[in-house]
Amino acid sequence: MTAPTTDVFFDFLCPYAWRGIELAAVLRGQGHAFRLRHFSLVQGNHEENGGKEGVVWWLTDQPLGEGSPYQRNSLAAFLAAHAAAQQGEELHWAFTLALFRAVHEHKKTLDEAAIAEAAQIAGLNLEAFAAARADEAGLRASLRADLAEAAEIGVFGTPTFVLPDGSAAYYRFENLTRDPETALVWWNLYGEVLRSSAGIATIKRAKNRPAQKA
Amino acid sequence: MTAPTTDVFFDFLCPYAWRGIELAAVLRGQGHAFRLRHFSLVQGNHEENGGKEGVVWWLTDQPLGEGSPYQRNSLAAFLAAHAAAQQGEELHWAFTLALFRAVHEHKKTLDEAAIAEAAQIAGLNLEAFAAARADEAGLRASLRADLAEAAEIGVFGTPTFVLPDGSAAYYRFENLTRDPETALVWWNLYGEVLRSSAGIATIKRAKNRPAQKA
């Protein structure tokens, strides 16, 4: 029997997504099942995508090396992650965590050097990783499937968790935990909000009264 | 001894604020203290107020009877509520609830007829109410104090609750309760989110996976 799976949509650019992925990683250690999915903030915030016709500008239609540093770096990182995913779920998680930590914990740029180092730290088969990365069209198709599903769900920020029951919400929090008990409390509170009979749509801090960092 | 007071910022135009005020009203019956405060959605969403310089366009600077129906009706309702408040806290609450119910439960227009009927249902001294409403400058000053504090806090939607500890967040939910036990559960869950050690900034549903109405 497999546990019901929660999809977590993220962008490597986002420090809140990093904390969300760390949370999910801790929960995986307690038997919870999460699937790594990609949502592009650059695409989501692109001026051409504001209209009623949905997504017009896709990150996956952009050449590597074009656009803003955010665009270039996030596209390269997403494609690399889809290449890493071909080495199995555990190595996909290890690569994702290593790349997130490089950028948001160790404050490195999300570039080729960070990708190479994350691959090494994760323990990927580097030859197979390089070979997988060479199939750019295949990786783009795989990324496009994530981005299309995110658009269908109406993801607008990361991390967004999609629970097995189909409910989905952006969950933004300021603090990092790698403690199993704390992670479970934070996760259960999120689930309680989504399942509440109140039908909670939004809880969001007033602009000048931000959440407190620990 | 008085209970620590939570401020609730609302606009009569907003159905979510209505549910929030009903929730607060039920909790008042259990000894919780809430203070009625006004935030103007028309002002908050006004195109002149998008910049860094804060509020440029104030609802309180607009003549009665000018602008969109939303602007006209909400200004008149706010001023009427400040007049009702002069008859004491309980009658202020009764008037606020009656006016909210007229608009959002009985689907009436937020106009002079609705205000007059709410005053009657609430049991206001109608002569004193009329006299208080005639002091338009005083009511505008009183409303302005609410709007200025909302701007200082960074309120952006209603209902927004400001807890005694200073934390403040928009709390949007789809369902109505007048059941004391349910109200307490919904309220405690909101408080738990604001007090969580995660430092929760936002929980917000994905656009195409809305919260379920009961």
Automatic annotation (TrEMBL), chains A, B:
Gene3D superfamilies: Glutaredoxin. One of its GO terms (molecular function) is oxidoreductase activity. Pfam families: DSBA. Residues 7-167 form the DSBA-like thioredoxin domain. Coiled coil: none annotated. PANTHER family: GLUTATHIONE S-TRANSFERASE KAPPA, THIOREDOXIN SUPERFAMILY PROTEIN. This is DSBA oxidoreductase.
